[in-house]
Q: What sequence folds into this?
């Protein structure tokens, strides 16, 4: 599950780095107006979608720190506690994985 979280974070960082160099070209089209300006507006929506997805992943990771700290393993109910820990980690991993879809729906990408 940790692999899913790390892969999602690296994916966001790489997408931001890949799209950032084209800012000059995309924003230059805003001055043209009309249909040509739609390229600039699409770039802005996509860029902010990627950045806000990365921010949402960061918020989930920060919140998950306090969420997971509530697990205390003891020998009395070790199996139940281990299952609880796995469920909490699964919730964090699915939240990170789902953040991309949420931002795509919000920005209409």
A:
């Amino acid at each position: 599950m940790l692999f899913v979280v790390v892969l999602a974070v690296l994916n966001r960082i790489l997408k931001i780095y890949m799209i950032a160099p084209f800012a000059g070209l995309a924003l230059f089209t805003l001055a043209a107006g009309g249909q040509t300006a739609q390229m600039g507006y699409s770039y802005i929506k996509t860029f902010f979608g990627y950045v806000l997805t990365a921010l949402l992943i960061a918020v989930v990771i920060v919140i998950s720190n306090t969420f997971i700290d509530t697990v205390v393993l003891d020998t009395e109910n070790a199996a139940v506690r281990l299952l609880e820990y796995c469920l909490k980690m699964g919730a964090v991993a699915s939240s990170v994985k789902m953040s991309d879809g949420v931002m795509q729906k919000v920005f209409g990408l």
